[in-house]
Amino acid sequence: MRTPKLTPLAATLPATVPFVGPEAQERQRSRPFQARLGANESSFGPAPKAIAAMQAAASETWMYADPESHELRHAIANHHQVAPENIMIGEGIDALLGLAVRLYIGAGDPVVTSAGAYPTFNYHVAGFGGAIHSVPYKDDHEDPDALIDTAHTVGAKMIYIANPDNPMGSWHHGDVINRMIAGLPDGCMLVLDEAYIELAPADTAPAIDITTTNVMRMRTFSKAHGMAGARVGYVIGATETISAFNKVRNHFGMSRISQAGALAALEDPDWLADIRQKVEAARERIGAIARRHNLAPLPSATNFVTIDCGADGAFAREVLDQLIARDVFVRMPFVAPQNRCIRVSCGTTEQLDVFEAAFGPALSAAREKLG
Amino acid sequence: MRTPKLTPLAATLPATVPFVGPEAQERQRSRPFQARLGANESSFGPAPKAIAAMQAAASETWMYADPESHELRHAIANHHQVAPENIMIGEGIDALLGLAVRLYIGAGDPVVTSAGAYPTFNYHVAGFGGAIHSVPYKDDHEDPDALIDTAHTVGAKMIYIANPDNPMGSWHHGDVINRMIAGLPDGCMLVLDEAYIELAPADTAPAIDITTTNVMRMRTFSKAHGMAGARVGYVIGATETISAFNKVRNHFGMSRISQAGALAALEDPDWLADIRQKVEAARERIGAIARRHNLAPLPSATNFVTIDCGADGAFAREVLDQLIARDVFVRMPFVAPQNRCIRVSCGTTEQLDVFEAAFGPALSAAREKLG
């Protein structure tokens, strides 16, 4: 037998994981983490009503989920005051980004993103043969003007921006995003990742305009709603944009339990308001911890705080390693100059207690080692 | 603004659902089904231990699932006496079929399947630009010799066969599949869909041989394990075949709850043995109902029975419509001559009671209408 050959494109792709999961690190260390603050998961958990809905749905999981996600899609549409035809549900933003890239990006098509922005987007672009053009951050913000300028220069078919941004926690006013949209090159799709939007100031999200056929907005139940492991995201867009997903999506791909949980979460705005307060308090506490060690926390509109460790990437990496050695799972930006920082997720009091106790010793150890 | 253009391939794809879900039909009818026997879901439900595990995991769903599915992958590997490197977990066989096609099939690449076999496979092949070559069924079985012959003729890069088969319920001895493997053209991948294998006679599955680099075997928790809505499937294959999935898969795509449920299901062989008996009894009962109406049930190695309605596709379609009108959700093969049949899933006593009560009147109404 001759082993079947991968497609020429697949043959060029590396078999890598964009992120190593905390469980893999725990297996390597042979020791569990005491604080899980590296993946911007919400240790406040899902809404109790969402948990109850998922538990109730467990015995119904012999049935495939409704491939049209009718109930959830209608509820989300109602929530945003758009039509159900303007909403596409999918298995988290990761999956939806993959489908978006597959729909619009072919071999060699130019795509613009920021250097150090969400690597899973780049993974998908590479996976479909697109050509990434990266624009530097500016003052720890993604740079809308530079993204648009570069898109014009290279003839980009797609631009990615996250607002608020991950991994820096920074954000732009909705007006800035609207200016970006107005400046898009002809035929270029803006993928606006709003994974953290529920935790940002109200004016961060531009008004939803479903007549705009060159913008798709990505939302998720993974962050504020605390359901990362459920894999529920959605796209808001023009009818024709949304409809295109039906060409390539895995129609029966949604978990039935996850659909039930997301619906219950959406119907509990009081709980979400409570989470916003908890996240804000956690942001303040992480900021205070950083300042107590004479380090600068970056302003954040997300459920994490990025801490400037005050030196270079090697030092921040050492601080991170020292935290991990003290059983605190955190991550860091991986492109300079953002990689002078570490990124700490907002968590429960217990989780932040562990972080607080470990941070001073981790800093000292890092200074001793590299100083 | 000029609306962004889809890739040339995506532009050619229809925005269709391979199957209309029963919920969509219920919405159209404005009435729920009384028996849900159309999608080969297992109304016997998941194992109680799996339900308990999923309920326990609901509050942990703030965490992403382990992207390596370490625990589940190791348990499945142990179950099959292979290495974890020979197992790839994914969001159901549907998602894994999509990835398999993406890895191996590019524009114009010939792919061979049976006329009327699993349409979601064809959906994926079309979605990546492959060229489907269909081979007729032979005596209501997929035809291994014809599949292999056609693959040689057209220079196929991939062959799909389901053993046992859906929608006919027929199966081949594992020796027949081994002969197929031996006859594969050089560089052609056999995708062996064994979604129903736990319900088939023991000699239906060839021995697992992970040195074979031109076969990938697909398994699922959707059928015998009754977890269709959880979306857990896996591939068994050679290390290099399995590793290739890491190039394109959605690494953080698995539901955490689903992983927990699948693990618990796998660790409950007694429950699976009980399901096998229940499915066998349901097969016998569906067969007896068919015979009582002088119709021939086809032999089945799956959790459904395909009933030959004794006339043409139009008549079977009318019987199906009459069943649906009587609140019984069933489906049927959609290619002649298999479309002379309807397909009824094995279900609980209550579900089959509804089917039994409806079947006679549905047949009479169909005969009256078309006779």
UniProtKB/TrEMBL annotation, chains A, B:
InterPro entries assigned: Aminotransferase_I/II_large, HistidinolP_aminotransfase, PyrdxlP-dep_Trfase, PyrdxlP-dep_Trfase_major, PyrdxlP-dep_Trfase_small
- Tell whether tRNA-binding is among the UniProt keywords: no
Named in its record, the pathway it takes part in is: Amino-acid biosynthesis
Pfam families on file: Aminotran_1_2 (PF00155)
* All residue ranges annotated as the Aminotransferase class I/classII large domain in the record: 36-355
Return one GO MF term.
pyridoxal phosphate binding
What domain of life does the UniProt record list for this protein's source? Bacteria
Similarity comment text for this entry:
Belongs to the class-II pyridoxal-phosphate-dependent aminotransferase family. Histidinol-phosphate aminotransferase subfamily.
Could you tell me which PANTHER family the record lists for this protein? HISTIDINOL-PHOSPHATE AMINOTRANSFERASE, HISTIDINOL-PHOSPHATE AMINOTRANSFERASE 2
Q: What is this protein called?
A: Pyridoxal phosphate-dependent aminotransferase
Q: To which species is this protein native?
A: Yoonia rhodophyticola
